[in-house]
TrEMBL record:
Binding site residues for Zn(2+): 130, 133, 154, 156
Catalytic class of the enzyme: transferase
Active-site annotation: 122
Region Disordered: start-end pairs: 249-281
GO MF: histone deacetylase activity, NAD-dependent; hydrolase activity; metal ion binding; NAD+ binding
Organism whose genome encodes this protein: Oligosphaera ethanolica
Database matches in PANTHER family: NAD-DEPENDENT PROTEIN DEACYLASE, NAD-DEPENDENT PROTEIN DEACYLASE SIRTUIN-5, MITOCHONDRIAL-RELATED
Domain Deacetylase sirtuin-type: residue ranges: 1-250
Protein name, UniProt field: protein acetyllysine N-acetyltransferase
EC number: 2.3.1.286
InterPro entries tied to this protein: DHS-like_NAD/FAD-binding_dom, NAD-dep_sirtuin_deacylases, Sirtuin, Sirtuin_cat_small_dom_sf, Ssirtuin_cat_dom
PROSITE patterns cross-referenced by the UniProt entry: SIRTUIN
Length: 281
């Protein structure tokens, strides 16, 4: 649990950085009601098998994917950003940081919170592509079908596949390349809500330059904890707003921690290229 000293140190670290690059994962969105993929209560533990996200199986049996994921897909489309998403966006909007987010998430919540530069290295669930004719559509056009777990089809009869990266598929090349560049240019790298188990995205923080500080905030240990300058197993949605509040208050005598920050409610008041599991490497 972060102490007052930790918060002050983090605030100074953030304040001193001009270019901040963040790698976010499923744990970033759990406070928005979206299950993560690796914890004991994560998504993979509610499925028959992780293979439901295997591209070969999807092509053979799309009904398996949609029957299991369809209702969850619907809830994700309706999800709203949490305080962690909002705090990240405020680093750019309020504090003028050059913020770049490389996200493994497919939920679009960073963009909903107001972050402008977001590279979705595992794609997006907002759009669909027909596997036969290549036509695209918006997932929100199929809310009724998703709620029923039905296979989504184009009028040509072809199956729609979400524009997310399944295991065995290539990552979006432009998004991954831009993420590498942002890591290399950063003054501070944040790893938020990812256990760093899925490659090649998990290798992105290794692209940071020598001497660039690395901060990890994740509920469980990660494969890169021993390389990090600071590691916290706190709630992202609680920690980041406290840091930004301290940046606002500075080191002025009498400034108080523990007060609920405006960042909690700001939103609501206004070079492998294929996706792989770590044990597949």
């Amino acid at each position: 649990m972060a102490t007052e000293h930790d918060i002050n140190k983090l605030a100074a670290l953030f304040a001193g950085a001009r270019r901040i690059t963040c790698l976010s994962g499923a744990g970033m969105s759990t406070e928005s009601g979206i299950p993560d993929y690796r914890s004991s209560k994560g998504l993979y533990n509610t499925l028959t098998s992780e293979q439901v996200f295997d591209i070969a199986r999807f092509r053979r049996k799309p009904e398996l994917f949609y029957s299991v994921i369809g209702p969850l897909y619907l809830s994700i489309l309706k999800a709203q950003p949490n305080a962690g998403h909002v705090a990240l966006a405020q680093l750019a909007d309020r504090f003028g940081k050059e913020l770049v987010i490389a996200t493994q998430n497919i939920d679009g919540l960073h963009q909903k919170a107001g972050s402008r530069v977001v590279h979705e290295v595992h794609g997006t669930m907002d759009t669909l592509s027909c596997q036969d004719c290549g036509s695209q559509a918006l997932a929100k056009s199929f809310l009724n079908e998703l709620g029923k777990g039905e296979v989504l089809r184009h009028r040509c009869g072809g199956v729609f596949k979400p524009d997310i990266t399944f295991f065995g598929e290539q990552l979006p090349a432009a998004a991954f390349s831009a993420s590498l560049d942002a890591m290399a240019d950063a003054d501070l790298v944040l790893v938020l809500g990812t256990s760093l188990q899925v490659y090649p995205a998990a290798s992105l923080p290794d692209a940071r330059r020598d001497g660039c500080p690395l901060l990890i905030v994740n509920r469980t240990p990660t494969a890169m904890d021993d390389k990090a300058d600071m590691v916290f197993h706190d709630s992202i949605g609680e920690l980041l707003p406290q840091v930004l509040a301290q940046m606002d208050h500075g080191a002025q005598p009498g400034s108080q921690r523990g007060q609920r920050s405006d960042y909690h409610s700001a939103l609501f008041n206004n070079n492998p290229t294929h996706l792989q599991r770590k044990n597949d490497l």
